[in-house]
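= Protein in question =
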Amino acid sequence: MLAEAPVGRHLAQFHRDRDSLANSIQLFFEGGLRRGNCVVAIAAAESAELILDRLTQSKFHPQALISSGQLEVVDARALIGQFMLNGIPEWARFRSALSVILDRVRPFGRGIRIYCELSSLLWQDGNAEAAIQVEQHWNALGKTSAFSLYCGYVFDTHSEESYAGPLEELGGTFSDILGTLEDERFEVALDRASKEIFGISLSQMAGMTKQDGARRFPGGQRTMLWVKRNLPMSTAQLAERARRYYQESPDRRAP
């Protein structure tokens, strides 16, 4: 999905570390550049540096791409300052700021791919409401402008605290939430832990949830959301035991 990234899709992925996220951004941008797309990175300074390094590893020349107009790197923190009003992302300001960027890159490629971590930064700042509104603003902008969008988040998906916020509401703003190899391993660890604690595997029950936001999440995250909602007193115990089993399990990426 990241390599193909069809126009009109609003993709998201939750990573536990920046290096893992950088791998996904590399796949997303490399797929776009090889198709002649323009690519836009709306990222914090740390992420922007990783993105340029990964493009270099993929045998691209970031400075040449920037000079040609095919690649644009935007400071996410500075952009947030342009459209926030009293802690709330104001729609008219958001549309104006992003339209300027889209209009600037559009002539230099066949289609546009955007990586964005505006909402991730707002979420990390504790402003979950603003993070959700920004994703909703992207959906509104996508009705009048053609692009594919990938939003990356970095937080510990194995921690109980990560599920305390309105994560399901956030999930409902995306067309697709993509899983990772880490999530597959954690789902197996959660099933092992839930069988020991409750006598049953919870992943199947979580998979049958009727909550639209939760259904969009990968298996391990969906199970954690289900437990947080239905068995809140047991969430910390389940997460702790699952983390231990996860650490003991082999990394499928290893040769």
